[in-house]
Design brief:
Layout (H helix, E strand, L loop, with lengths): L1 E5 L3 E8 L2 E8 L7 H24 L7 E5 L4 E5 L4 E2 H4 L5 H20 L2 E2 L8 E4 L2 E4 L6 E2 L3 H18 L4 H16 L1 H24 L1
Antiparallel strand pairs: 1-2, 2-3, 3-5, 4-5, 6-8, 7-10, 8-9
Helix pairs in contact: 3-5, 4-5, 4-6, 5-6
Bound molecules: adenosine-5'-diphosphate and magnesium ion (MG).
Length: 211
C-alpha cells in the first residue's frame, strides 16, 4: 500500500485489490471526540459517502466505483481514478479548454442538485479530470436537500475554492460553471440559487468583518 493522502478526516492509500488498482480510504479516529460518538460519526460518514457516490452516479455524475464498504473499520475501497485534480488541471489549460471543463463541472453540479444531492465539500480538490470526464469524490459530508440555501452554499464553497487557488481566472471559471449549471437547471432556477449564493457571500463578509 502506498500513501496517497493524509487528510484531517481520513488516510488514503493506493493499493492493488483482486488485480485492480484501488484507493483505500480509512477514516481515522479523533482523540478529542467521545470514542462512541467518534466511531458512530466515522461509520455514518463512510456509509454516506458510498451511498451518495452511488446516487450521484445514478444522476449521471461520474464517481469512482465503490468495491467495499466496511463500517467496522470505517473503510471504503474504491476505483482509482487515474487523472489530475481540477485544482491542478485548471492551471494547465488554455482558455477554451478551461471553458469546456468549467462548463462540464457546472452541468454536473446542476445534475447533483436536480436530484436534491448536496455535495457538502465542493472544492477543486474533490474533482478529478480523467479523459473527457470529471469525476466527483469526497462525499462524506453530502446530504439530500431541496433547499435553495443548501444549493447556494455548495456553489459558494466552489467559488471560494476558485478564489483561493485560481484567483486570477476565478471570475471566468465561475462564469463558465454557472453557464453549465444554467444549461441543466434553467434560467429562473439558476437565478434563484445565484441570489442565495450572493446572500451567503454577503453574510460571510459581514460576519468576518465583525470578528
Ligand atoms: N478514487 C480516487 N482516485 C484517485 N485519487 C483519489 C481518489 N479518491 C481520493 N483521491 C485523492 O486523495 C485526495 C483526498 O481524498 P478525499 O476523498 O478528498 O479525502 P479528504 O477528506 O482527505 O479530502 C483527493 O484530493 C485526491 O487527490
Ligand atoms: Mg477532499
Amino acid at each position: 500500500m502506498k500513501l496517497l493522502s493524509k487528510g484531517a478526516e481520513a488516510d488514503l492509500y493506493i493499493a492493488e485489490w483482486y488485480g485492480r488498482k484501488v484507493v483505500i480510504k480509512r477514516r481515522i479516529s479523533k482523540v478529542y471526540r467521545n470514542p462512541c460518538l467518534d466511531l458512530r460519526l466515522r461509520a455514518s460518514r463512510t456509509v454516506r459517502e458510498a451511498e451518495n457516490m452511488h446516487e450521484a452516479k445514478k444522476a449521471s455524475v461520474p464517481t469512482p466505483i465503490i468495491y467495499l464498504v466496511d463500517k467496522e473499520s470505517t473503510t471504503l475501497i474504491m476505483e482509482y481514478i487515474d487523472g489530475l485534480r481540477v485544482k491542478e488541471a485548471l492551471g494547465m489549460l488554455d482558455n477554451s479548454q478551461k471553458e469546456k471543463l468549467c462548463e462540464q463541472i457546472g452541468m454536473k453540479v446542476g445534475m447533483l442538485h436536480s436530484t436534491s444531492l448536496i455535495h457538502g465539500d465542493l472544492t477543486t480538490s474533490n474533482m478529478i479530470v480523467c479523459g473527457d470526464k470529471v469525476f466527483f469524490i469526497d462525499f462524506g459530508l453530502s446530504f439530500h436537500s431541496h433547499s435553495d440555501e443548501d444549493k447556494g452554499v455548495d456553489l459558494h464553497l466552489l467559488k471560494r475554492a476558485l478564489d483561493s487557488t485560481h484567483y486570477k481566472e476565478s471570475r471566468d471559471c465561475l462564469k463558465y460553471i454557472l453557464q453549465g449549471y444554467r444549461e441543466v437547471s434553467g434560467e429562473s432556477y439558476t437565478s434563484k440559487i445565484l441570489k442565495k449564493m450572493k446572500e451567503i457571500e454577503y453574510r460571510g463578509r459581514y460576519f468576518s468583518g465583525r470578528t
